[in-house]
Every structure is written in C-alpha cells, then in structure tokens.
Design a protein that fits this description.
single chain, 188 residues, mainly alpha
Length: 188
C-alpha cells in the first residue's frame, strides 16, 4: 500500500467515526427529550389521580357548576387517552385551562375554601403544579438541546438523512397567552 491509500483510508475512517458520533448524539438527545416527557407524565398522572377527588369535593358545594366539572373530567380523559407527546402537550394545555376555570368557580364558595379536605387537595394540586412547571422547564431544555443539534451544521445533514426533525416545546397555546400575560387581580 502506498501512502496515499493509507491517508484516504484513515480519512474515511475518521469521517465515518464523526458521522457515527453525530448520529449517536442525536439519538441520545432524542431519548433525553422522551425521558423528560416521561417525568412530565409522572406528574400528570398524579394530577389526574388527584383531580377526581377535588372535583368530588367541589361537587358537594357547587352542584350548579356541573358543566365546568364535566369539562374538567373530559379534559382529564383526553389527557389520559392522548397517544403521542405532541397530542399529550395539546391535551394537557386544555386540561390546564379547565382547571383554571375550576379555580375561578371555587372563588365563589368561601365555605368550600374553608373545608379541610378541599384545602388539603388544593395544596397537593398546587404542589403538583409546581413540580409540573419544573419538569416542563426540563423538557423544554431537552427539546431545545435536541432542536439545536438537529438544526446545527453538520449534524443537520445526519438528522435529515435519518429523519430527525425539530420538535415542539411545551408552550401555552396562543389562544390562552393573553390571559396568562395579564397580572392576576388580588382582592381582599
């Protein structure tokens, strides 16, 4: 073998190793994103398990809020039946919106807010919501890292060849963004 052949073989091996490394990095980042969503799933499961208890307590006080309670129940079912990560994100946004409506309805019942069972459930739900916010931030961080790898040169070439594509973040839907940007009204 002459020196040129050896250099070509070494160059091909180095390029192959770089391509394999990029592919493996994309796989690692995709799996990290999926793991991050699994953490969200754990918190959502706790939330879904808690909500029927909360709804049951509220029903005792707010029997005429039936439509709102049904909306919360339907949103919970949609979340539990969603199959893909993107469907779960969309269903969870609807569920969060329904829960916000439930919180507003509860404000109309001062005696409900004094109920010990309700207060315990409300505290647990608040804790779960805080944990959800944390794992959603982690999910978005993992998604950002994955999307950066998919879009950056030269790994974008490998991503395109093997069907990796950018993935959506866990965001507030545009239809609800205005309500979330408004400062809360505090009444004494």
């Amino acid at each position: 073998m002459n020196m040129t052949t050896i250099i070509v073989i070494v160059a091909v091996v180095i390029i192959a190793m770089i391509l394999i490394s990029m592919y493996n990095n994309l796989v690692r980042l995709r799996n990290n994103r999926e793991n991050a969503f699994a953490n969200i799933d754990v918190q959502l499961k706790q939330r879904y398990d808690l909500v029927p208890q909360l709804v049951s307590v509220v029903k005792g006080y707010a029997t005429h809020e039936r439509e709102l309670l049904e909306k919360v129940t339907q949103a919970r079912s949609a979340c539990m039946n969603a199959s893909s990560i993107n469907d779960r994100i969309q269903a969870d946004n609807q569920f969060s919106s329904a829960l916000a409506g439930l919180r507003v309805a509860v404000e109309a019942y001062p005696e409900l807010k004094a109920n010990a069972n309700f207060m315990q459930l409300q505290t647990e739900l608040s804790d779960i919501e805080n944990k959800l916010a944390s794992v959603r931030r982690f999910f978005n961080s993992a998604t950002r890292e994955f999307n950066n790898a998919v879009q950056s040169f030269p790994s974008n070439i490998i991503a395109g060849m093997f069907g990796f594509k950018t993935e959506p973040m866990f965001e507030i839907p545009a239809s609800e963004r205005a309500a979330h940007e408004k400062a809360p009204e505090i009444q004494f």
